[in-house]
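Training component of the fellowship. As part of building independent skills, the fellow (R.M.) carried out the full modelling exercise for a liganded target. The chosen ligand was flavin-adenine dinucleotide. The inputs are recorded below so that the supervisory panel can assess the work.
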Amino acid sequence: MSPSKRRVVVIGSGFGGLGVAVRLQARGFSVDLIEARDKLGGRAYAYEQDGFKFDGGPTVITAPFMIDELFAAAHRNRDDYLKLVPVDPFYRIEFPDGRFFEYNQDEAATERGVALFSPPDLDGYRRMIQHANSIFKKGFVELADRPFLKFSDMLRIAPELVRLQSYKTVYEFASRYVGDPMLRRVFSFHPLLVGGNPFQTTSIYALIHSLERQWGVHYAIGGTGSIISALGRVFEELGGRIHLSSPVSRVLTEGRAATGVQTSDGKEFRADAVVSNADVANTYTKLIDAPHRRKYTDKKLRRMRYSMSLFVIYFGTRKQYPDIRHHTIILGERYRELLDDIFRRKKLPDDFSLYLHRPSATDASMAPAGCDCFYVLAPVPHQQSGIDWATMAKPFRDKIMQFLDQHYLPGLIDSVVTERMFTPLDFETTLNTYRGSGFSFEPIFRQSAWFRPHNESEDIRNLYFVGAGTHPGAGVPGVLSSAKIAEQLICDRLLN
Ligand SMILES: Cc1cc2nc3c(=O)[nH]c(=O)nc-3n(C[C@H](O)[C@H](O)[C@H](O)COP(=O)(O)OP(=O)(O)OC[C@H]3O[C@@H](n4cnc5c(N)ncnc54)[C@H](O)[C@@H]3O)c2cc1C
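Fellow's submitted model of the complex:
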């Protein structure tokens, strides 16, 4: 049958959902993209208020070639739709003792930085980069866009995983090569960007640092939201149909095969394949009746481990802070213990580490003239913590803003002109994520690759997954890879 006769429904319009929708529509399928919120983007939803533009989530664009590749799959040139620019430095990492470390794509400059910061660590740093590059070649270049549907896929790579010492954690990996406690933090924080605890996440995730070095860290002019709107535009130009404010309430099934979806207003969309970009655990527990699920039962999903959540404050100031970099990571005194509180003990600590985003450092269009646009986020426990965010949000917000005012953004409290927050409760309700996690399943070894929910459902035929909760995992490059994998699986199934 020709692809245009084949219908596909995609639930959710995060990067993964938009990615697969664009790809399949470009291949000739007839695609309906159904989104619960009033705008596209999911975690990458963009807010506009009082003349400021705030990207809701992703701000660090690594592997920009994957975005180009997606436009190319739609027979488009990305340059005609949006402009990506490199960010330099990638990050500034601030330490509690007042020192800081910056790095960028310039290898020699980063080596000089390491040598200045901790002279004995230069040699180890060089060896660490070599090791990280071999993980990167295996983990990203060879495996990220392959499906892991069979256990034999896992067995095939097992010897390599052992050789690369993926049984070690990212922190152990960094500590093997560098001795300075602060540099160990610099070269181990990356799993936090995809919801993992550096003390528990497999060292495969050390590849993120190589990913940054290989292609740089980029920013989309107009914010990450401009990538989302461009993809939405491309999808519609190709003939795809977008349905906003239309939460899917049920995946329709015949026997154990998906035949379409029903939205909360009772409308049915029949399809030959259903792709869920909604949270995997919630897709199973909320949209598919329990008797249809043999593997992903409610009990199994309750027992799986979920990433931490995030507390985010978006704010605009009437003045500018030109000394603040585009991406700043502010590390507190405690590292391992703080992460233990968040991931293991699930309690709201008194202290915090922060990521501060200042897009107006690169792009004046994000704020009115003379103003600055920011968001600050703190990793916090997911909703199993029992924290009542309705009452805790305000004091936690005040503590963070006062800290920033005192240490990094003098006069902040008096210069805020607009503000909004997003708490774990919003992740749970507005974004419909299981336990309000920020990044779905925690990226630990026993929840990665074959062990992660597959891109093709193990319980329901014709149901596919894209996004953070399936292989390869969270982060924009990861979810774009999942879209590529799902496209291939659906074409293999429906066109052969
Ligand atoms: C604050 C924050 C900062 C981040 N920063 C970065 C970064 O700098 N770089 C990076 O690479 N990654 C970053 N990430 C991670 C990255 O944003 C995510 O992993 C990625 O965007 C998730 O995309 P996704 O495809 O899984 O879809 P999601 O963004 O999770 O979207 C899923 C969509 O499904 C919709 N949906 C859910 N249920 C239903 C339903 N029943 N019916 C219809 N629609 C439904 C939701 O409304 C949502 O729009 C960040 C994440 C957060 C939260």
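The panel noted the following from the submitted structure. The mean pLDDT is 95. The first helix runs from residue 15 to 26.
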